[in-house]
Specification:
single chain, alpha/beta, seven-stranded mixed beta sheet, globular, binds pyridoxal-5'-phosphate
C-alpha cells in the first residue's frame, strides 16, 4: 500500500479535528437531563432557528431522532409512507415498528427522487376498521441510498401542501440536509418549512463525533424529550458533544461544497454521470461490487459494497484532493479486474 488509507465507506468515519477537540475541551457543561447544560441549549436553539422551528432536541444518534420524530406523528397501528430505500425503513433495524408500532408502506423512486403527486396518491384516509390510516410521510434529503440525491424544493413544497390538505404530517430525515442546502442554495428555513418534524445529523458531513437533532414545535419537542428519557437517551454533561456540533456548524458547513466536487470527480470511474451526483455520495452499478471493494481495499482505498452490484463511495472532510486522485486510480484498476 502506498500513501495513507482513503476511507470512502461513509462520511461518518471522520475524526474530530484539532480545532474541534479544543472546542470540546473548552465547553461549558451542566446536567442536561435537568436542562442545565448551556452548550446543549445553545446548540438546540441555534439549530431550531436555522430551520425556522420553535425547538430542538439533541440526541445521540440520527436513528434516535428519527424514531422520536416519527413517533410524534404516527400512533401505533397507523402508517408512515416512505420510499423503499429510505433509511427509516431499511437501516434502522425495524425500530419504528418494534418500539412504536408504526407500520410502513413504501414507494419506488429512481435515485430516491421524490414525486410528490405519486406519493400523495398513496395516502389512505381514515376508513374505520378496514384500511390502515396514513398518518405521516417521511422524505429523505439528501437521499443516502439514492446516491446523495437532493430533493427539489418545489416537490417538497407540493408534498407539504398536499399532506396538509389531507391531514397528514411530514417527517424530514435530513441527516445530510446540510449537503442538500449547500448543493442547491435552498435555505435551511425553506427546507424546514416543508415538514412537521426534521432530523439533522452532526456526525455525517459536518464531522462531529456524535449527535443529531430533532426539530419541531415546542410542544412536540417537550414530548420527544420525555420519550428520549424513557428510552434511556437522556444524557448528562453532554455539552462536550454539543460543542463539537457548534464548532462544526461554524467551520465545516460551507466546505461541504469541496466534498461534492470530489464526489463528481469519482463519478466517471464508477460509471456514473457526474451530472447526476448532487452531493457527496456516488453509487455505481458494477459487475461484482464485493470483489471491486476487496481489490481496492488491498491498495488502501475503502468503499462499500451495498449489494452484489452496488458500490458506494462517500466523500468527506478527511479525504483531500490527493486522496480522491488516488481513489480514482485504484478504483479504475480494481474495476478492470
Ligand atoms: C439518511 C440517514 N438517516 C439517518 C441515519 C442515522 O444516523 P445514525 O447513524 O446517527 O443513527 C443515517 C446514517 O447514516 C442516514 O444516512
Amino acid at each position: 500500500m502506498t500513501g495513507g488509507l482513503v476511507d470512502l465507506r461513509s462520511d461518518t468515519v471522520t475524526k474530530p479535528t484539532r480545532g474541534m477537540r479544543e472546542a470540546i475541551a473548552a465547553a461549558e457543561v451542566g446536567d442536561d437531563v435537568y436542562g442545565e447544560d448551556p452548550t446543549v441549549r445553545e446548540l438546540e436553539e441555534r439549530v431550531a432557528g436555522l430551520l425556522g422551528h420553535e425547538a430542538a432536541l439533541f440526541t445521540g444518534t440520527g436513528s434516535l431522532a428519527n424514531l422520536l420524530g416519527v413517533a410524534l406523528l404516527v400512533r401505533p397501528g397507523q402508517e408512515l409512507l416512505c420510499d423503499a430505500q429510505a433509511h427509516v425503513v431499511r437501516a434502522e433495524l425495524g425500530a419504528h415498528a418494534s418500539v412504536h408500532g408504526v407500520t410502513t408502506r413504501t414507494w419506488h423512486a429512481e435515485r430516491g427522487l421524490l414525486d410528490a403527486d405519486e406519493v400523495l396518491a398513496m395516502v389512505a384516509p381514515d376508513a374505520g376498521p378496514f384500511i390502515v390510516r396514513t398518518a405521516a410521510i417521511a422524505v429523505e434529503n439528501s437521499h443516502n441510498f439514492g446516491g446523495g440525491t437532493v430533493q427539489p424544493i418545489e416537490q417538497l413544497q407540493r408534498l407539504r401542501s398536499g399532506a396538509l390538505e389531507r391531514g397528514v404530517s411530514v417527517h424530514l430525515d435530513g441527516a445530510r440536509l446540510w449537503n442538500a442546502h449547500v448543493a442547491s442554495g435552498t435555505s435551511l428555513q425553506e427546507y424546514g418549512a416543508c415538514a412537521d418534524t426534521v432530523m439533522v445529523a452532526l456526525s455525517k458531513g459536518l464531522g462531529a463525533p456524535v449527535g443529531s437533532l430533532l426539530v419541531s414545535s415546542a410542544d412536540r419537542i417537550a414530548a420527544a424529550r420525555d420519550q428520549r428519557k424513557r428510552l434511556g437517551g437522556g444524557m448528562r454533561q453532554v455539552g462536550i458533544l454539543a460543542a463539537a456540533g457548534l464548532y462544526a456548524l461554524d467551520t465545516h458547513l460551507e466546505r461541504l461544497a469541496d466534498d461534492h466536487a470530489h464526489a463528481r470527480r469519482l463519478a466517471d470511474v464508477l460509471g456514473v454521470d457526474p451530472a447526476t451526483v448532487d452531493t457527496n455520495i456516488v453509487i455505481g452499478d458494477v459487475a461484482d461490487a464485493p470483489a471491486v471493494a476487496a481489490a481496492a481495499a488491498e491498495e488502501g482505498v475503502l468503499v462499500s459494497a451495498l449489494g452484489p452490484r452496488i458500490l458506494r463511495a462517500v466523500t468527506h472532510l478527511d479525504v483531500d484532493e490527493a486522496g480522491i486522485e488516488r481513489a480514482v486510480d485504484v478504483l479504475g484498476r480494481a474495476l478492470k479486474g
